[in-house]
Amino acid sequence: MSENVSVTFVDGDGKQTSRKVGRGSTFIDAAQDLNLDIAATCGGRGRCRSCRIKVLKGILPPPTIMDQVQLGPDEVHEGFRLSCQTKVIADCTVLVAPPIAEGGHKILGAGVSEDTQFHLDSGIEKKLVAANTPKDENHQTSDMEMILVALGEPVNGDVPIEVLRKAPDVIRAKGGSLTVTTFNHRVIDVEPGDTTRHKYGMAFDIGTTSIVGSLVDLETGEQLASVGGVNPQAVFGGDLMSRIAYAQFNPQALRKLRSRVLAEINGYVKEVCGNNNISAGHIYKMVIVGNTCMHHIFLGIDPTYVGLAPYAPTVREPVVVTAKEALLKVNPNARICFLPIVAGFVGADTVAAVLATRIHESDHIRVMVDIGTNGEVVMGTRGRLMACSAPAGPALEGAQIHHGMRGAVGAIEKVEIDGDVTCETIGGAPAVGICGSGLVDAAAKMLEAKVINPSGLLRRDGGEGLPEKIKARIVEGDNGWHFVLTWAKDTGKDEDIYLTQQDIRQLQLAKGAIYSGILMLQKVMGVADGDIEELMLAGGFGNYISTESSVAIRLLPNLPLEKIAYVGNAAALGAQMALLSETERRRATTLAREIEHVALATNPDFQEIFVKAVVFGDETKRKSRTRTRTKVG
Amino acid sequence: MSEPRLKIPEGWEERAPEGWEWSELWEAVEVGKHIFTDEFVRKAIDTGINPRTILDDGLFPGFNLQGDRFTEQIIFIPEMLITARAMKAGLALIRPLLAAQAEKPIGVFVMGTVLGDMHDIGQSIVAIMLENAGFQLTNLGTDVHPDKFIETIKELKADLVGFSALLSTTVYYQKVTIDEIEKAGLRDNVKILIGGAPTTQDWADEIGADGWGRDAVQAVKQAKRLIAEPRTAWA
Question: Could you tell me the pTM of the whole model?
Answer without folding.
Answer: 0.82
